[in-house]
Amino acid sequence: MNGELEALEAGLAAGLRILKVGGRMAVITFHSLEDRIVKQFFVEHQGRMESLPEGGAKWVGALPKMSILTRKPVVATDEECRGNPRARSAKLRVAERKEQE
């Protein structure tokens, strides 16, 4: 690959910077390496709250926060693949930008 994966990572970061709170980022990938990058990016920004020994909790994850809307990627149906064979490798993932707390 000719820098495509690095360009994908840069594009995800740039897209998230301009995404407004409540805005949704939808990404279609056609290769497993691309899909892994998108999934990891979304998971990093989904983060989690972690309990502190002295009480309270802290945010663990990358900012800004996102909420993943597609638990598993959306894939083409058999009918869609018959009409467009290239769709068989497509995976759609969607996340929404959340407010910072």
Helix percent reads 25-40%
Low-confidence stretches: none
* Number of helical stretches of at least 4 residues: 3
Distance between the termini: 39 Å
CATH-scheme architecture: 3-Layer(aba) Sandwich
Let me know the largest β-sheet. 4 strands, antiparallel
How much of the polypeptide forms β-strand, as a percent range?
Answer: 25-35%
Number of domains: 1
Average residue-wise pLDDT: 94
Q: Please state the overall shape, judged from the principal axes of the Cα atoms.
A: elongated
Q: Structural class, from secondary structure content?
A: alpha+beta
Give me the count of strands: 6
How would you characterize the overall build of this protein?
With 101 residues, the protein is an alpha+beta fold. The protein has three helices and six strands; from the N terminus they run H-E-H-E-E-E-E-H-E. The chain has helices at 4-18, 32-46, 78-83, and strands at residues 24-29, 48-51, 57-60, 66-68, 74-75, 91-97. The strands form two sheets. Strands 1, 4, 5 and 6 form a four-stranded antiparallel sheet that branches. The chain has a two-stranded antiparallel sheet with strand order 2-3. Helix 1 runs parallel beside helix 2. The mean pLDDT is 94.
What are the salient characteristics of this protein?
101 residues; alpha+beta; Rossmann fold; 4-stranded antiparallel sheet; two-stranded antiparallel sheet; 3 helices
Outline:
The protein has 101 residues and is an alpha+beta fold. 36% of the residues lie in helices and 26% in strands. Strands 1, 4, 5 and 6 form a four-stranded antiparallel β-sheet that branches. Strands 2-3 form a two-stranded antiparallel sheet.
